[in-house]
Amino acid sequence: MTRQRGFTLIEVLVALVIVAIALTAGIKAAGALTLNAGRLRTISAAQWCAENQLTELRLSKQFPSVGDSDFTCEQFGESYKGQIMVRPTPNPSFRRVDAAIRDEAGNQMLSLSTIMGRY
Asked: Which residues form the Type II secretion system protein GspI C-terminal domain (predicted)?
């Protein structure tokens, strides 16, 4: 009698379970990468908005007055809301300037700070 060679049903099922686990892990990793790429895009656009506002202030060559002001910025077809906060420093010739970007819910996404002096 010749004996047939091949895999048993249990061996095939174990192999399928291993493949299913590997594919599930791969799909989860791909999903995480997609979410991270979207978040990086949003944070980068918010940072550009904040940097643009601080650069605009520097280029105006005027000593900023203490106080808060709101601004909006458009990047990648999306609108970002932000606030410029100017605070005094111990040296009256300098001011601390913060640019904060908030999401739709009002949570702070990003904050950039700089010191500006008299020109």
From this structure: 40-116
Q: Are strands 67-75 and 78-88 parallel, antiparallel or unpaired?
A: antiparallel
Q: What is the CA angle 58-48-59, rounded to 5? A: 15
SS percent in the chain: helix, strand, coil, step 5: 45, 35, 25
Q: What is the pLDDT of residues 72-88, one digit of tens each?
A: 999 888 899 999 999 99
**What pTM, to 2 d.p., does this model score?**
0.72
Convert the pLDDT of each residue in 22-32 to its tens digit: 999 999 999 99
Beta carbons within 10 angstroms of residue 44's beta carbon: 13
